[in-house]
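Bug report

Summary: structure tokens for TonB-dependent receptor differ between web form and batch submission.
Environment: batch mode, default settings.
Steps: 1) Submit the sequence below via batch. 2) Compare with the web form result.

Sequence submitted:
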Amino acid sequence: MQVTSSHAHSTGANVVISRAVIDHFTSGSSPLQVLAATAPGVSFGSSDALGMDTAASTFYVRGFNQSQLGGMIDGIPMGGFGFHNWYGLNIDQIEIQDNIQSMSVSQGAGAVDIASGQTLGGALTFHSSDPKDKAGGRVSQSFGSYNGFRTFARVDSGILNSSGTKFYASYARTSQNLWKGYGDQRENQANFKLVQPYLQGRGKLTAIFDYSGFTQYNFLTMTKNMWLNYGQVAMLKPDYAKAVRWAADAQAGTVPTEVQGKLSADEASNIFWDGSQVQRNYLSALVNEYNILSNFKSDTVLYGHVSNGDYGGTNNFLTSPTSGVPMVLQMGHPDVRRIGFTQSFTLKLHNNDIQSGVWYQNNTFNYPTRLYEDGVDSAHSSLSGFKKGTGTTWWADSYNSNTFQFYLKDVWHIIPGMTLEGGFRSLTQTTHGGTSVDNTEALASTWGTYYAHPVSGSMTSSNAFLPHFSFDYHFLDNHEFYWDIAENMRTYDYATQTDGGTPWGGLGNANNSAQQVFNENKSKLRPERTWNYVVGYRYNSALFSGAVDFYHTDYYNRLAGITSGPVNNTYSAYLNVGRETMNGADVLGTIRPFHGLEITNSFSWNDAQYKSNAIPYNGRTISIKGKHQVFYPKFMYKANVNYTYRRASFNFNTTYSSAMAMTYTNDVKVPSYWTSSLMASYNFGKIGHALQDLKVSFSVNNLFNQNYFGGYYGAAAMSGDDNAILYQAAPREYFGTLSAEF
């Protein structure tokens, strides 16, 4: 709901963030982090200053997290953009931040033309910059705290021939030591984009190739008590003897001497030698925009995405059979193959824009989990030594998913400035798969393997009519009124058999098989659905811009991993935990008292309440009726100050987030916190004949050095503080960047 200014603008319930706004933040910052700092109702948390860590990244838009939002870049469906990349890819691993031209977030209900099976609330849209008409390039070099180092380089070919062919190639390398514990983060990215216009301005063909390689020693998750009583919770590496001793205590159910009276045995067992993630992603696409007639346009996108990597860490509850060391390196090796296409047609008539299209995607996902022995004196490397044929396979999962969507919409231009949009989409997805290998029983006597939740079967999500209506009216030059209504459905997630929160994951127990629970659920489960309603007003003038949004959501068939069954045989299940309703409002005001100064304040309120009063849990029923939704603040306040004087610029932004529930019963909460950043830059302009826009910038993240939780990984607990899923945010860090164009 950002208002129109020299830097950002909005249409209806959409916030649009320009390149100029992105440049107000530290070079290489996650685009999601920038969105959260500038758009009302949006929150983001991570374990590192730039938001690189996909495991810790936690992104919400008006109560919906990144697994419940649609996403597209340059017309390419992003799929689910959380950790592990089961069926999609995060924006941080697609596009180098410097190449993003603009991005927008729909704070309403998305749109029928968004190719996504995850959309329950809004949608994110990103646009990368096109190659420039003139040959040249851009370079930047950043330095930061904890040996932070980032290099970016881009070369533009300029127009190469009479047909207008042009391209760019770019590369970025980012590295930084972890701010606590052992290890570092490293990412290499490459973007290539070629544009070939058609003659007589009939359109253009765009070829895109993106690569990312991310390597990281992980930060450690914690409970709230661990944060309060243990201080800087980190992996035990490089103290191997201590790690072995703590692993032995974990298997014995005892508390290590150093933390007796501070941590429980369960909490201490969550602290181990090390963990890591290695991700490699390749995304290719052909985007064809062609004007068949002056009023009839065709848009086609063909895309393919390959992702693989190594994810995991030390398991304190297994034993290396040869060395007898009471810990093992457990690593997952995901392999994803995602291919698909979208095809849409737009017909412009006198007062109507009629659009229709289809989307098809096939996704193959394989995830073998292997065990690697730790030695008497040293552990197995967590970053290498994973060639095919090495390790011992504990279990493996395989899935194949087919998704199809059709949509039709009409935008009616009633009078100048007034539009009414009506349309619908039909969406269906069928997923086959589950456990393909399970060696739990065979390895139990040697490795100490335990119940691994094997399950296999198919699930289908389908809805033939998901309507969307919106109205937008610009009147009296500076005023705008709009509303938005839509029904959405989210297809079933799939992940590994040990990850809860999907129909296939974390089910049953050793006495009540996962397969039996899955078979029972198949006839009972229904896909999650929402009805979203938004109404808003916006005022824009040279001196002042103001906006107010009210929204309401009815959430049906909310699904969650819950402990179910009788007292003498409780087991993990994936159940419908009932309805949720959400009411909220965003208020924003921007004042421009004189040229160059812009001050923006926004306030967000969200009241998301569960409605179920009889959730089965541990052999009894629990009521969560009236409890607030987990992991999303009820109140947020944001302030942004931008000041530009000639070649100098200054930006300060701060965000307050109220306390957040981290359990369904709301008995444990994450404390409220403030986070702020500061950036100042100076552009020296042209230097000599070669360099242009030589610019130096200095920024500070977490300006006031707040100690708070930056994100989480995993599902919320029903109650209590025995759920190690929280990440501590990075402390104050400093960055400096020197950049130039040529």
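Above is the batch result. After comparison, the two runs are identical; trailing whitespace caused the diff. The helical segments are 19-22, 31-38, 224-229, 240-252, 265-269, 440-447, 514-524. The two ends are 36 Å apart (CA to CA).
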